[in-house]
Amino acid sequence: CAEIQGTSPERLAECLGLDPSKYRSRSNDATGSDPSAALLFATSDEERYKSCEPLALACPSCSAAFNCPSITSSVCASIGKKSETEEFDSTFWLKLHCPKCESEGSTRRISPAMICNQVKRQIVEFVSMYYEGIMMCDDESCKYTSRSPNFRLLGDRERGTVCPNYPNCNGSLLRKYTEADLYKQLSYFCHILDTQRSLDKMDVGVRIQVEKAMTKIRPAVESAASLARSIRDRCAYGWVQLTDIAI
Asked: With contact defined as beta carbons under 8 Å apart, do 14 and 20 qualify?
């Protein structure tokens, strides 16, 4: 039933008066078998990147850290009506001021080099997390975690996936931080720093106003955006190997 468009095992279980929570894991496993589905079929950017870590910048003056909104959402908010709580999100990329320092009267801007260096540092942290190669058992009652692969063979299971606690545990070892997680995180940073691709999706009337603001912001973020794109594009996860599909 998980393969039928528009339904899911937990929904059918609910209609039949069964406990849907017992069938939810099967649905998640079906989605997890194709990690790219989250990127391909998400209805919005918020849904597509909801599991990603935010881009955090630290002020060089006061060392305060703050999460950055995407440039597109920031510019669109500055054009439309906004509440006081949205003031920072809508003006940060236009002013490049630390919210704490700005409230204290400081006008020092965060430089393009600072933005680029901090983006690079965070990307390196995520890449390092991937290369740590931490494996975790998918059995909720086990959660065995290790960096050392277990090469035991059991039935038709892939080598290295058998939980060392077998036979007390029938779970499988899976990467805690996968290629899909890394690629999605890098794509999210590209999305936050994007000043061009989002314009292609806008109506002409709105696009003219947004493009004027983007022109002012682009020089400050182009180095960081170019860095994020270059590292993401080097990730093999985003490329199709023709040898795998050629007949």
From this structure: yes
Q: With both helix axes pointing from N to C terminus, report the angle between 204-233 and 179-192 in degrees, rounded to the nearest 10.
A: 140
The Cα–Cα gap between 237 and 99 comes to 37
Q: For residues 237 and 165, give the distance between their C-alpha atoms in angstroms, rounded to a whole number.
A: 31
Rounded to 10 deg, the angle between the 87-95 and 71-79 helix axes is 110
Contact (Cβ atoms closer than 8 angstroms) between residue 195 and residue 225: yes
For 2, 17, 32, the CA distances from 25, given in Å and listed in that order, are: 11, 18, 10
What pLDDT shows up at residue 34?
53
The domains found in the chain, sorted by start residue, are 53-128+179-237 (1.10.3200.20)
CA distances from 19 to 6, 70, 80, 138 (A): 20, 39, 45, 21
What sign does the dihedral 131-32-173-24 (CA atoms) show?
Answer: positive
Whole-model pTM: value is 0.75
Contact 148, 136 (CB under 8 A): no
What single-letter DSSP state applies at residue 162? Answer: B
d(CA 33, CA 198): 30
Q: What is the DSSP annotation of 86-135?
A: GHHHHHHHHH-B-HHHHHTT--PBPPHHHHHHHHHHHHHHHHHHHHT--E
Contact 170/139 with Cβ under 8 angstroms?
Answer: yes
Q: What letter does residue 41 receive in the DSSP assignment? A: S
Mean pLDDT throughout 157-177?
84
Q: What is the mean pLDDT of residues 68-77?
A: 87
